[in-house]
Amino acid sequence: MNPAPTTEPSTEPGAGQLVAAAGAGGPEGVPRVVVILIGVVAACGLAASVLLWQKVAGMQEQLARQSADAGAAALEARAMARQSLDQSRDTAARQALADARIAEVSLQRTQLEELMQSLSRSRDENLVVDIESALRLAQQQSQLTGSVEPLLAALRSAEQRIGRAGQPRLTPLQRAIVRDIDRIKAATVVDLPALLVKLDELVRLVDELPVANAVGTPQTGGRAAATATSESQSWWQQTLAAIVREARALVRVSRIEQPEAALLSPEQSFLLRENLKLKLLNAKLALLARQLESARADLAAASQTLGRYFDSSSRKTQTASSLLQQIQTQMRSTDLPRLDETLAALATAAAGR
Fold first, then answer.
1. What is the full DSSP assignment across 225-287?
2. pLDDT tens-digit map of 222-233
3. 272-314 pLDDT, tens digit each
4. What are the residue boundaries of the structural domains of the chain, listed by start?
5. Which of 145, 178, 142 is nearest to 160 (CA)?
């Protein structure tokens, strides 16, 4: 308790009256109101202290509870952080394993693609080589037979194989094959077997060709007509007709354009026919060997021999000359079309460009 304050006399007139009025209550001269006020103040201070103490106690309890909660939250957060760290490590390990597997799968895929490309390239190269071999073989067969059918068959087969392969880099080769097929179809090629048949017929006809200085022999039809007529004539008429025929056979008047033909003996005429046969046979062999220039030269020599030494007024000579002209005309178009464009496309495809 604080000591009571001492009262001092006041110079103010109001204060002296107040002290005098209140001094009657206290035994020791302390006013009762002051005591009451001091008691009230003390009670209020005590109540305030109690309230403050309770408030401080509540705050301490709240702080303790919050501190406990914060500690628990910290422990929980630490546990969660540790769990998150473990999960992150696990995730990182799984990610590393997944990356390794992805890299391995990517490597295997790359190797597989390279293998497939290698196999595809090898298959395409084998296809190109097979097509080129088939086309060259067909070209040789066409040259031997003089027909374009082996070429067309080989080109159609090559086009079908390329279409089944379905490789875009072989598309230029397929277009070149189609163009060569159209060009071969449009080409005019003579039938070589028909030429050979005409040459054989011409060789057989050589023995029947009359040379320019050959002595005419009476025809069988004339003899048959004379025999049929002599049956209805008298013996002297038959004798006169026989004398006239023999006289006509002794003398012959004709015009020879080539003077050297009149100087041929019968033996030379035989050799002339054999020489003409040899030229025709050489032309036939040259056709079979596809030596067109040699065949044309032999046919030109045979034509010159036929016009110089044989009777041009004879029907057989005219027939032989007509056959020879037909053969020479057809020989001009016996050149087979070539596969230059397709072979060039095959070389480009084989080179991988």
1. HHHHHHTTS-HHHHHHHHHHHHHHHH------SSGGGGG--HHHHHHHHHHHHHHHHHHHHHH
2. 444 445 455 556
3. 888 989 999 998 888 877 777 888 888 899 888 888 888 778 8
4. 122-188+340-350, 191-213+264-334
5. 178
